[in-house]
Amino acid sequence: MNAPTIRLWDPVVRLFHWSLAGAFLANYFFTEEGENWHRWFGYYAVAWLVVRLVWGFVGTPAARWADFWPSRARLSEHLRALISGQPYHRLGHSPLGALVMILMMALMLGLGVTGFLMEEVDYFWGADLPLQIHELCANGLMALVGLHIAAALFESYRLRENLPLSMVTGRRRKLSEH
Ligand code: HEM
Ligand code: HEM
């Protein structure tokens, strides 16, 4: 039996997501540090950050910052549900998911800025600090990505719905009436 689904994530959100994931993993594991591919993957990801920032104001309803901004009230509601073992089911980002999303975007921006300083600004040539911050951002982002993937799988199990697939097809199951 196929449950009815609705279109939730528009193509911009999905392209943004897999571009960010691909560029991050490529640079963390495969490209030569600081070389051409590394730089271009990094700038590609930063360009998507800008697109996504704007899309959060003009895009489809579930893509908008206002829809999922993790305010204190939303975060505490989500935390309470988590602590009491209730699944938190909504068609869109959960508050804690959104918080992690924003932190991941900030660290990606940090990677772009420190990479730019190391590569393009003579003043920082050979300086230690940008590299240290770059490394910190890369490892911090890797930790958040681990948490993000674990949470996506955990919530998929609890909701009996394939959330990663929704970032591919854009579709989510309709909420059933309780
Ligand atoms: C590897 C680096 C990754 C990064 C940096 C990343 C980052 C993000 C960001 C920024 C969003 C918000 C999307 C938006 O609203 O525009 C998001 C959502 C999401 N990501 Fe990832 N992601 C990564 C990998 C993955 C992987 C491997 C999976 C699959 C297991 C995954 C599953 C999801 C899901 C299911 C959502 C939507 C969550 C929801 O329903 O609220 N992500 N991710
Ligand atoms: C997706 C974004 C990025 C990721 C995940 C990433 C990741 C990394 C990692 C893990 C290292 C090794 C740090 C260490 O030595 O411990 C590194 C080094 C470096 N990255 Fe990136 N980076 C990104 C973007 C950029 C950008 C946009 C630039 C430049 C425009 C850049 C330039 C460099 C340079 C110059 C080094 C140091 C090479 C050396 O050891 O001298 N990175 N990066």
TrEMBL record:
Under Pfam families, the record lists:
Ni_hydr_CYTB (PF01292)
Q: Which residues cross the membrane?
A: 12-30, 42-66, 96-118, 138-157
Listed under GO biological process in this entry are: respiratory electron transport chain
For whether the record's keyword set contains Repeat, the answer is: no
The Cytochrome b561 bacterial/Ni-hydrogenase domain covers which part of the protein? 9-170
What membrane topology was assigned to this protein in its record?
Multi-pass membrane protein
Q: Which GO terms describe its cellular component?
A: plasma membrane
Q: What is its main location?
A: membrane
Quote the protein name from its UniProt record: Cytochrome b/b6 domain-containing protein
